[in-house]
## 1
Amino acid sequence: MRKFTAEINEKDFGKEVELCGWVHEVRDLGGLVFVVLRDREGFAQITLPKKAVDREMFRRARKVRRESVVRVKGTVKAEEKAPNGFEIIPEEFEILNEADAPLPLEVTEKVPAELDTRLDSRFIDLRRPRVQAIFRIRHAMLQAIREFFDRRGFIEVNTPKIVSTATEGGTELFPITYFEREAFLNQSPQLYKQTLMAAGFERVLEIGPIFRAEEHNTIRHLNEAVSIDIEVSFTDHEGVMRYLEELVKYIHERISERCERYLEWIGVKIDIPEIPFTRLSYDEAVEIVKGKGEEVNWGEDLSTSALKLVAEDYSGYYFIVDWPTESKPFYAMPHENDPEISKTFDLMHGWLEIASGAQRIHIHDMLVRRIYEQGLSPESFGFYLQAFRYGMPPHAGWGMGLDRLVMAVLNLSNIREGVLFPRDRQRLVP
Ligand code: ATP
Ligand code: MG
């Protein structure tokens, strides 16, 4: 019976199993050959004593090149010195596909490689257990997110990624050719998820790509990222902040339950964050930054260096709330008693922004005014604005970068580590 290496235990001792995988290592001791087989769950030692196995098979195994794909059938034997305490004495050793040599990249951890080199040969880099583990945990996070929102009555939706206008009026859009017209790759599902509030969906979740044509070259920006977006009717910014902190806590709980072995592979320990997260106001954050000698113009977004100063005092997850209305997109709802300030929040992890959200403006005329005030033209928001004229409920929502969350939870030094095939200013291949 075919098994994963990690599925073999004492119950299999003395029995026959079949394993498929890659040749991680070959050790030739003359009269004895060890082949370490690797599959996606771990390692198994295949032991070939010259005297005890078929001669032709022995010859084949000792010469097999590293990273070739093999199928092995044999008897499991207890062996303390082997990985997981067992070895396999093969009756069959079939090379399904021989790998070329030399390898473009080493799979063993012995030879460290630069991230760029690793990404160039990503298929082989992804074979490394430490790297595999990241994507197993990312999978568990996605599943936790879907579980969390499904239980709370959310409807998962898919909105278009090819659009005719900017979401936020920014210039950071990728233009594409759409038959005889120009179109763009969407920078956020914002306008669509709000439109679905007018459609009566009440609670929506979307997990999908966002495209940003920003020329950043940082450890936290990509040109294509995955965004977790929610929008909720009949609530305000506070209501969706609660969903956000509860979700983040739930994700930590689920991965610490489900991903013990993968966390071990990367050497990460998960601490379950306590909720509610601290709410730090923008004004308080500005005070901290100024107190440490850096200038901030009230009304502007906080720079990376400013956020690093704030993060000296606030570690882990916390919210920065009540941002200046002018620093946030036009759809953010201003506070009634002080319209200079908006009902907005960013979820931070140390200095890293993980999510942004707000109560939205649901009043048509107010929205049009804000579009003008931000130097945009209401004509380009036709379908969106129409939805506000015929029964738009009050609503709020947020967008969280999945890649940023993976980076934060697993303490990765670069967002690219947690993305299969990252897209940035330089990289379009693989
Ligand atoms: P930043 O200020 O860090 O550039 P932003 O405020 O421009 O981010 P938003 O428009 O608020 O980003 O998008 C919501 C979330 O989507 C962000 O909090 C972040 O987690 C994620 N995100 C946005 N842009 C990127 C990007 N270029 N690469 C990776 N994730 C991103
Ligand atoms: Mg933001």
Note: The mean pLDDT is 96.
## 2
Amino acid sequence: MNAPAAPWQATILTLYPEMFPGPLGQSLSGRALAEGKWSLEARNIRDSATGKHRNVDDTPAGGGPGMVMRADIVAAAIDAATPPGDSRPRFLMSPRGRPLEQARVRDLAQGPGAIILCGRFEGVDERVIEGRGLEEVSIGDYVLSGGELGAMVMLDAVIRLLPGVMGAADSGTEESFEAGLLEYPHYTRPREWEGRSIPDVLLSGDHAAILRWRRREAERLTRERRPDLAAKAGLAD
Ligand code: SAH
């Protein structure tokens, strides 16, 4: 018999470990955490700081506003969190990073876990990004005050895809982005609500017709709302 798979392992490096699990302790991800389907370790970067004041940041070389997280302290925090042979990818949450996409999320869910560094202040010294091979990931084109919420977003997206976490075996394969399209509209009872009805085809019992309708609606919504995705999926205008 195969040994049970080791749980997907998340290590967060942050100045605010008490923020975790936060919302990830609720609902789907919270239940999965309690059931040991994934594990979470939030480590305080400040524990790797030395000196009387345990400073983790310093003023930017070259001048300018704000503070920068020090390469030596951050590297020590990463090293302390990484046992020999640990093959997990290492990330830095960063508005400069590659935008997080469902394909990358799916990839990650198939791996052993992730080590995620959460920036604060102006960000981190460039040398530690290079020196520790950090992959920069962005959750969107806006600036957060810290990487913690970004890390939670990334973890939430991954955890729901781990084996046994979502209820229906196939929910997750029909969703937005899975086929490069946005998802079709959903309806449930009541059949009539404020003068609006559920589209007849969904009540017809004709599964082929329902599939066609859903596909058409997914294509229509994607063209209207996300011409970039429509072009990638090869949909004509
Ligand atoms: N000066 C930086 C912004 C720093 S914001 C710049 O202009 O690029 C502080 C921290 O918040 C960052 O180090 C990063 O960890 C996190 N952060 C901010 N916006 C983010 C985003 N869109 N995606 C992921 N992390 C983000």
Note: The chain has two domains: 8-159, 177-237.
